[in-house]
Amino acid sequence: MTGNENPYLPELVTVMKVIDETPNIKSFQVVFNDTEKMKNFKFEPGQVGQLSVFGVGESTFVINSPPTRMDYLQFSVMKAGEVTTALHGIYEGDVIGVRAPLGNWFPYQDMKGKNILFVGGGIGLAPLRTLILYMLDNRADYKDITIIYGSRTPPDLCYKDDLKEWEERSDVNLILTVDNEFPGWEKRTGFVPTVLKEEAPKSDNTIAITCGPPIMIKFVLQGLAELKFPEENIITTLEARMKCGIGLCGRCNLGHKYICKDGPVFSLKQLKELPSDE
Amino acid sequence: MSTQKLKEIIKQVLPDVETVICWQEGYDKLNVTPIFITSPEQVDQVVWNPLCAQNLASYLPSQKKKVAVAVKGCDSRTIVQYMQEGLIDRNNVVIIGIPCKGTVSKKKVQKAIGNEPVEEVTFTDGSIKVKTPSGEKTLALADVCPTKCTSCQFPTPIVYDQLTADAIKSDKPPESVYADVAELEGKTLEERKAYFASQFDKCIRCYACRNACPMCVCQDSCIAETRDPHWITQKNSLDEKVMFHMIHALHLAGRCVECGECERVCPMEIPVAKLKKKINKEMKDLFDYTPGVNPEDKPPMYTFNVDEAKIKEHKL
Amino acid sequence: MADKGYLPKEKIKEFVEALGKDAAVYAPCLEGDTIIFRQYTADKEISLDRPANTPPKGAIYPQCETLLSFEFKKDAATPQKMDVELKANTDFPKAVVFGGRPCDAKGFTVIDRVFVNTDTADPYYKKRRENTTIITKCCNSPYAGCFCVGVGGGPASREGSDVVMTEVDGGYYLEAVTEKGKAVMSLSMIQDGSSYEAKAKQANEKATGAVRNPFPADARISPELFDSGDFWGRVVDKCVSCGACTFLCPTCYCFNITDEQAITTGERIRSWDSCMFQHFTLETSGHNPRPAKYKRFRNRVGHKFSYYPEKYDGAIACTGCGRCIRYCPVSVDISEIVGYLKDPKADPKQWAADKKDAKN
Q1: Which label site among A200, B24, B275, C169 has the fewest CB atoms less than 10 Å from its CB?
Q2: ipTM attached to this prediction
Q3: B22-81 residues touching C, CB cutoff 8 A
């Protein structure tokens, strides 16, 4: 937590930059209005924040900039409901609220000395981005880094500048795919789980981290199982309708665990031990 | 007694339907609860007595397959209204009609016995005998019945496939139907406002009245909870509560079948049906229309005619 | 300060008014046929005859409250820029909850574990809880649906109370449970209570013996039944998905947060929400992890009897007050359902044998 006495009270932040990622996704780079707060703010890769548009409400987003780059905090927002639509109407210079950091984070310390496989789809790259950038900023700590990322069409790919940079780096293996043929697209086509199967990355000494639409995750988890990834080496980050973000309001539970507080990051092993609503 | 006949009919129709919806004994002797019968062994649990006040027809629109349902005369108006509004397929419903001489309000009985635990309940014609740790008490059904039974016009179901007993005719004068509304109308506007304020102030916004209402078709998209449109906030102020109940009532204009479920289920004992009944009376005066009595009718608010066939001159 | 006393019935009003000198007193008040916890004023009629329709939960955890208010501000020098000013109030006056039942008082202890005993405590609840004294009336006899003894409580349980009072000889025998409670005992209308102690004990034992326990001793919830969609589909066929059970529950604490705005001012409010509502878990994308009512119902029962106990050393998040049973529009009986889940003789195959598909 931020150390606030009142966990419901957001910090005021100013939006420094708005980036159009895709036709319906925007990224917002924000800094705390209180410069001391900005200086002292600490978080871990994978933790989330609640963005407030006052008068409209709050919604949960992962902090997708890494803790190694603290000039600003970045959040990416897909336009879908009331709060995200309001956020898409926010301009540079506007003041919004942030409650962060909330939740747990990727166990990146335990991943040192291992190969890392990222499998993402659509805006699901957001939580992976914070960890990818963190690892690239501490590149020597990790072995091979493979990123399989896809979206419906090329314009729907997020973080195009990052993708370009990763593609050019020799110490990152980036595989991009889109669902179907698209004019001007010369890279792969096919769904992410299919590409994963084709690539068949080795599971030895490898941690797989995946995030994307629920249906993609379902098939990626199947694919990883077929590739003999042990359940404890498969990590995902979950989404749910959240309100409080601090484990009190009661809606984001899986059994006795709350996605907002005990998660959002879980290993497949942990998830299998929890009751599901299925 | 028609209970035996009811059981026989259920056994007879069960092979042709997925489920038979009826009543069984509830958590104590003063309670009955719905039973969804899918096998003949369950039929023995069926009960029929004046405690069977719940309108089981409300479950019909959510059923996906052919079902049978036990209905009283008042409940059958729900089915007629569903037919008018195209909310059910009549071919998929077997209606087991029960001629009914009046039900009992659990709340009124509890009050009459000083809220003591109930050990035994028995019925004789026209009365209910309740045994509690401090003794037995016999109450006249007329004293502990819901408001709707005091002016019942339809003791026998309007539509049915089978009847559990001979049809009976109403012995209540038609003008008694809106007697309680007339009482309300006798009050000044200020008095009425104060009355409804004191009643709706008790509302906890649990939406039992809405969810139990057979004609509340919006259900999960109700404006009481939506942000788009954002007409009502989640505050528990009197304004918001009144607004919710006003909208509930207005959505039922010319559709409320007066089954009284909203009032029966209110945990705060608010007379929530009163407002709806007042609007029904206005609809009756204006359009000469009674909801849920003729499957061929169209509810007046479903149609727009420049020259309404039955509209009367506005009273103002 | 004495920790035992006696209060004659005719002094109740005087007692409540004395408590109200420096605190807001919430008491069960009769309005028509309804008994509701209201902030006491002289025009209200207190009724201790039966448990109130509502628990006193709202006195400490109001159905709706302002978490923060905000105001948009413009500076004439930079008219294109809009600033926001936030205010939050967590300063609450002293309060007394008078006339709740032991199940009601215990309800607060269930919420305490979640809202207070955590690193992200709820400052609104916590402050109100600290400032509230709870004076509880023990039950003389059970009421329709009650089953407190089945969940570790009882009609004279002291858990959560600062003072407990037992009806004896035209008055109440009072016993202070906490230091807060002892402070109450010094009020002038409290008489010496020592001669009533034995009688009160007897009355409480009699009441305890009269409450039903719907659960087999030491039985555990059958995981096989608990996971069975068939079982739950059957159990909740009749449920109408309203929020009566949760809004009347002394332990249910789930809430919603929504913003309301006028022109340049507004507030963020927190209001009770119900896990029985379809929209409770509905995500913006349209995905809903609990779209069917049996899944929502299973979660409600699971939360009270499985998930919560797993997290808090076996404590059950149900106090057996019976309100969800007696006020359920269709008489769904949670004690019957949990009793079945705990019955070692229960055979899930028996339930599943002639089962139709679980319905929405």
Answers
A1: A200
A2: 0.93
A3: 26-28, 30-34, 36, 38-39, 54, 58-59, 62-65
